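DATA SHEET
Item: assembly model
Revision: 1
Owner: S.N.
Input lines:
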Amino acid sequence: DIVLTQSPATLSLSPGERTTLSCRASQSVSSKLAWYQQKPGQAPRLLIYDASNRATGIPARFSGSGSGTDFTLTISSLEPEDFAIYFCQQSSNWPRYTFGQGTKVEIK
Amino acid sequence: DVHLLESGGDLVPPGGSLRLSCAASGFSLSTSAMNWVRQAPGKGLEWVSTSGSGGGYAYYADSVKGRFTISRDNSRDTLYLQMNSLRAEDTAVYYCAQDVIGYTFYWGQGTLVTVSS
């Protein structure tokens, strides 16, 4: 299985700050990588697919980049509603999806 | 709008069985591959199973192969997951998710399965 490693595990930030989350794959996944946001008690919500494409309705402050084994999710200016857990997912080995362990973005 | 509603989660003893359902609306189930993904309490996400749009093929994670069976009734726009020989480690919220261009685009709100005596 393709292993995804996210870093850091937790980020403590203030609203308005810019942040970058990392996801590294154990082998190349080309650009077949997605990012999800999950809030407590809710299902994950797709933010980014194919490494850099925003899903419908996702604000422009969210952006993704990378290819191969190294990917980043950037939030340009944190809004209060952005404090959540973020997961990456590879679909290179469809349908055997694997997910990263998550990065929690918490309020400082 | 796509809407997915899971049901069937319950408390079941180890070794027991349970069938989950996922009712789809806003699209025709027959046009989409569908997935089950689970999340143990306080943990990350784990892909469980995928059903092809026609139901002609199915894939399973090694952790559930031989115990879980995915199926669908396209005429009822409903996806199922039959879970047998349940173990404590199967305790999780189970989500169904619509597959679009190779990603789990749309998710239901999940149903909780607890395996405990």
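QC remark: Chain B has a mean pLDDT of 96.
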